[in-house]
Amino acid sequence: MDVIKQISDGSEWFETTEEATHFSEAEVDRATMAKAAGARDAQKKKKT
Amino acid sequence: MLKFRIARSDLSSHWSTSADGWQAGGSSVLPFRNPALESFAVTDGERTLLVNRERGTVSHATAITNVSPEELRELFEEAVAWPLDHLTLLLSRHEARLEAHAGRWGTAPLYLCERDGVLYGDWDAAALYPYLDAALDPQLAAVFLARFAQPYSRRTVIEGLMWLTTGAHATWSARESLSLHYPPAEPVPRPRPLKAEADAPAIFLGILEASMRRWLDRGPIAGAHLSGGLDSALVVATGARIVDTPLRTYGLLMTREQRDAQQRRRDELIARFELRDTAVMGEDFLPFDGDGARMRTQRVVPWEEIYQEATDRLLLAAREDGVTMMFSGIGGDELCYPHATETTKAADECGVMPSFLTASAIELLRDVPASIDCAPTAAISTSALEGFGASATRNLQFGLWPVSPLATPELVRFCRRLPREWRDDRRIARTALARLGCSTVVTHPPEVDDFSPMFDRCLITARRDFMRSLFAESRLAGLGLVDRDRLLSAYDASCAQAGKEEPEARLPFFATALLELTLRSIDARRPIAPVIAA
To answer: Which residues is B173 bridged to in the sheet?
Structure first.
């Protein structure tokens, strides 16, 4: 297991380590769609 | 990570070791063998656990070890919670049932289909074509044509072909057909303030280096893609510092018009980090090259790498150099995307609808994205997971295990929590690269990489006759998705507009060609039904 030990994700350097809970459904939709738009931009940039 | 064919009639059989993996009756499971991976199998007599995963300590052991039911349960729980990528099969004789569990990384997706009482699984979607009909999911086909995108979903644009997305599991039994189940959505990291003393670029580099060491500590011989952009530069600069021998790198070069700036960045990186580099001219191996594996073997998969023919040359060079694991910069862009609360980008923005879509195809698009069965939010950005889907099969075909250090859950979590000022203009990545000793030639190139001249050379000149012949005998027209005459005239008009309109306006034609070729590939690989004498 030594090579897969979990490493720090830098949490200790943020003011609070309180993690966000799941978005509300509406926020998830919004986040998903914003991501999809961003992904399409990135995909087009790479592919053309 | 696995290839398998499992017949329903074998679900109650005992599994045993075979030359390459495991077998039961006429069924077989083959793990992908690579120094970055390990595999093992255990049984308690009633259940059998077959595991292929990124490496801990056990190497490849296909001998099936007898364990108690309690030990098997513990090993199964450990396997599905494995912190790196894995593919785990649990077969129950009494229930005549199979479960297939994918890890949280999505590095090498597993594709699944079911036919005539046999479940097929493979990391190469085209390997399943013999068991599929040449049919498309109408809605996803319309999405693909309009947006050149295969949404990250258990559904694929190919009817009957399923994608075991990150963290998902599949079930199949003597009584139930194939069913894929998504995991719960991962929490979405939100931006938060950094402590005053926090050195964000140093933390970024610390996480990146620690992640890469996981794969370098033992076994694999590493290579890395090097386009010279920010992402590949970060991965290569970090990797070169922690390997014992000069890092081997592989670069796809743009057309002459763009190559000077790209070469300046690559030259600096090659000299500064003492890389052993191999470069391939992209324009020498344009898409749909008749000598490339895609056309020669008729294995067109719509969501795979666009510049597959050129990329294959790089992967072949890597294999010949003895490389067994390839680092890439996939996921770098996504680290710094704005959060939903930071952007006003329209959710349904999808550009101009291609003029050659039929009314029924446009009707299918009206319900998008609400009705598309997208996978839930994962620990890794969706577009990075789509990137894995585009590139993994080609790597595995050459015996290489792909690793994307900019798409690790720990780095994604760190970057997604950064305050906006560190993500805007990718400041965190540019500053980290400067800390590694790169000049502004690398950290702040005046323009982003632009492959559009290569893309246009393919579509407008090199492959024009080929594209026209495909469109003239359009199968998509037969399926009611495109209007053949409008497709041909729109294509001709777009080619005539070369230089006057953005190359991305021609993406729908490329998407159309890919789906046309996919249908033909499936047909070509379907076995001819045996003639049974009366």
So the answer is: B97
**Pairing state between β B97-102 and B86-92:** antiparallel
For residue B261, is pLDDT > 50? yes
| Residues on chain B touching A31 (C-beta within 8 angstroms) | 188, 339-340, 377
> In which region does residue B299 sit, left (phi positive, over 0), alpha (psi from -120 to 50) or beta (all else)?
beta
Coil, strand, or helix at residue B40?
A: strand
Q: Is the pLDDT of residue B441 over 90?
A: yes
C-alpha B253/C-alpha B246 separation (Å) is: 21
Q: What pLDDT score was predicted for residue B73?
A: 97
Of B84-93, B257-266, B394-403, the least confident: B257-266
Q: What is the pLDDT of residue B457?
A: 86
User: Which residues of chain A have a CB within 8 Å of the CB of B194?
Assistant: 13-15
Report the residue from B148, B383, B503 with minimal CB separation from A42.
B383
User: How high is the pLDDT of residue A8?
Assistant: 83
Residue B173: the pLDDT is: 97
- Pick from A7, A38, A39: CB nearest B207: A7
Residue B279, beta-bridge partner list: B251
Chain A partners of B413 at a C-beta cutoff of 8 Å?
A: 9-11
Count of alpha carbons within 13 Å of B67, Cβ hemisphere only? Answer: 18
Burial B35-52 (b: 16+ CB within 10 A, else e): bbbbbbbbbbeebbbbbb
Q: Tell me how close the Cα of B114 comes to any Cα of chain A, in angstroms.
A: 30
Beta carbons within 10 angstroms of residue B414's beta carbon: 25
CA dihedral B311→B312→B316→B319, nearest 10 degrees, is: 70
| Average pLDDT rounded to a whole number, residues B520-534 | 68
CB crowding B100-115: b at 16 or more within 10 Å, else e? bbbbbbbbbbbbbbbe
Mean confidence (pLDDT) of chain B: 91
Segments of B287-396 assigned E as strands: 325-327
CA separation for the pair B250, B282 (Å, rounded): 12
CA distance A12 to chain B (A): 9
